Amino acid sequence: MTCTVVEWLAVFTRPETVQIVLDSWQYQRQHTGLKLYGYVILENHLHFIAQAPELDQCVASFKSYTARRIIDLLQQQKAERLLQRLHFAKAAHKQDRDYQFWQEGVHAEMILNEAMMRQKLDYIHANPVKRGYVNLAQHWRYSSAANYEGLAGLMAIDVW
């Protein structure tokens, strides 16, 4: 799955915003049966491979919770320019909020077999390398690539 910040705003350059995402996944792993097989968080979007009994509800809850917490954090930090963009990006018909954080929808793709799983894990882990941020996927701090190399990642995952 892919979740993208509205207007591709670079919000995940702040360790505190990334931690909100990691904490949300950790909570869901402990309380909702979410299995998180892999992830990568870049400055304006994230990819993750997951499974859950009610995955659609997990994803909706994840997006809602992380959006609220990140917006609260940006307000505390007085990140006015980002907040202005998030306010501007809010759809005119949405009356229940002042800001829109995530783009609508989730770009999901069903993984059908072991070969496809390996290909998707390799793809998401290679994102920071392709962008020139690191030379090796396991060196990207906000990724599960290290977990698959037997190293400690920022959070535990369900290794495939």
Give the biggest sheet. Answer: 3 strands, antiparallel
Unreliable spans are none
- Widest sheet: strand order? 1-3-2
- The number of helical elements comes to 5
Distance between the termini: 16 Å
Helix content: 40-55%
Structure description:
The chain has helices at 15-31, 55-76, 80-89, 114-130, 145-148, and strands spanning 2-4, 35-41, 45-51. By secondary structure, the chain is mostly helical. Strands 1-3-2 form a 3-stranded antiparallel beta sheet, with helices on both faces. The model has no long low-confidence stretch (mean pLDDT 94).
Summed up, what is this model?
It comes from Methylomonas aurea. With 160 residues, the protein is mainly alpha-helical. The protein contains five helices and three strands; from the N terminus they run βαββαααα.
List descriptors:
globular, 160 residues, 44% helix, single chain, 3 strands, 11% strand, 5 helices, three-stranded antiparallel beta sheet, mainly alpha
